[in-house]
Design goal:
By secondary structure, the protein is mostly helical. It is built from 9 helices and no strands.
Length: 199
Amino acid sequence: MATSAQARAQARRWAKTGATQRRILDAATEVFATRGFSAATMADVVAGSGASIGSIYHHFGGKNELFLAIFEQMANAVDRRIETAMEHAGEDADPRRIFELHVRAYLEAMWENRRLARVLTSGDTPAGFEVARRDRMQAAFRSWMTVLELDKSMRGQVLSGVLVATMAESSLMVAGCENPDDVQAITDATIELIDRLTA
């Protein structure tokens, strides 16, 4: 059984590891945002983070893995935002209200993490990433849309595709915003459009 001194030392080590990982990811995000993924080097991330190259490889691996870790960081932020919104939805919320909360939470998370979102949607990404990002985004949107109970007809399938495209375009617009008022306007317009399409 560990002594209290050993437990405190272990807790400090874990905290230090977490802080190191955050510092590396923040530096990688900054490097990818300013130089682009293709032009960025691991030496740039080392310089920006103050971490050794060995530490970066230990925590993440190479440049591709760092990019994927940024994607996971963004996905986790979105998931947390949506979970928080759902906690406040109430058990008797109707399906449209639940879908609206998903949309608002998603777009708010894109705004709050716009630096990450801009890196991930820049087009300068590792090979195969765009397909993985699109697939994950479509899976998330389709899971939200189940509450709308769209039918499986050809019309329902087309509508589902239109809603996914609407959400994808809205998220790109939000990520590109500088003014929070614009984010609110985009979010409101997105929800209004979806309401019209699914009425």
